[in-house]
Design brief:
20% strand, globular, 12 helices, 14 strands, 7-stranded mixed beta sheet
């Protein structure tokens, strides 16, 4: 079994699905000859040709609009947006067309497309290259939002996303594209969308995170002696509420870690779900460690913005000593 990083695992999933289904096309800026800005699509145009791995003009609106048309007419487009911050200009296409086609056609049409975006900070990139849009996207009915944190999950989740009959935004944490290697099976496998993963069983505290913050949260929690149950959400929408609530009912305490801004961040929705379904089981208020309510800073300040070991452990102590 090969040890792959997250970028290689996504490439393998795309290659296998393109070989399995001739309807699958990849399109985006520089995805063909250059293999994508992070080389995730490297080698695909050489193997499958320029008609199935298409270098598009620099137009996110055009990429998403074209993908919607392809999907509605029976193809399986996988669109790459180079950075999630570039998705804003195509948001109208996503929310007013892709997300609504099933409802608008009363179930007569679906829009089976995947939008892949590198997302998140920590790579010393420029403005609009480090956005965390998961809450905005999850707030749009009709859109599924998937965020893998490790190579094994990335392959299984992406195959599920490609085979899903509805539009899926697949956010790939830029910070861990090449920071983690693990064994990824060559054979095809799927991981159901909407299924969280309990990475570590524990009895004192539930800690929930996703994407790049999962790696750094786990590293911080290695420094504590508490028995911590760690949940990787993997899918933001649909949310695996049952796994969250069952865990909080067992531990009575919860900490959420995400790098998106705090106000209206997805941690707020998780807290609301816990309050509705497990309030009487809580031994302490649910705590959040998040990014700040400012535009993502340029590289000299990004380490102050992103949750780090000190802030995560401080959050743990605040919940445990309430």
């Amino acid at each position: 079994m090969a040890r792959l990083n997250l970028a290689q695992a996504v490439n393998l999933a795309l290659r296998q699905e393109m070989g399995r289904d001739e309807r699958l096309v990849v399109l985006g800026e520089d995805v063909g000859k250059s293999g994508g800005v992070f080389r995730v699509t490297d080698g695909l145009q050489e193997e499958f040709g320029a008609e199935r791995v298409v270098d598009t003009p620099l137009s996110e609106v055009g990429i998403i609009g074209t993908s919607i048309g392809l999907a509605v007419n029976g193809m399986r487009p996988v669109a790459e947006i180079q950075f999630s911050g570039f998705l804003y200009s195509a948001y109208d296409q996503i929310t007013t067309h892709a997300a609504r086609i099933r409802t608008r056609s009363r179930g007569g049409l679906t829009c089976p497309m995947v939008i892949r975006c590198p997302y998140g900070g920590g790579v010393r990139a420029l403005e609009l290259h480090c956005e965390s849009l998961e809450t905005i996207l999850a707030h749009t009915p009709g859109i599924k939002v998937v965020i893998p944190s490790r190579p094994y999950d990335a392959k299984g989740l992406l195959i599920s996303a490609i085979r899903d009959p509805d539009p899926v935004v697949f956010l790939e944490p830029t910070r861990v594209y090449r920071a983690i290697k693990e064994e990824v099976p060559e054979e095809e496998y799927t991981i159901p969308l909407g299924s969280a993963n309990i990475i570590n069983k524990g009895t004192d505290l539930t800690v929930i995170s996703w994407g790049a913050m999962m790696k750094y949260t786990r590293e911080a929690l290695d420094k504590t002696d508490y028995s911590v149950e760690i949940i990787d959400l993997r899918t933001i929408n649909p949310l695996d509420t049952k796994t969250i609530v069952d865990s909080v009912k067992r531990t009575g305490r919860c900490l959420i870690v995400h790098e998106a801004p705090r106000t209206c961040g997805f941690g707020a929705e998780i807290i609301a779900q816990i309050n509705e379904k497990a309030f009487l089981n809580l031994e302490a208020p649910v705590e959040r460690v998040t990014g700040f309510d400012v535009p993502f800073p340029l590289y000299k300040l990004e380490n102050y913005y992103l949750p780090d070991e000190r802030r995560i452990l401080k959050g743990v102590e605040k919940v445990m000593k309430f």
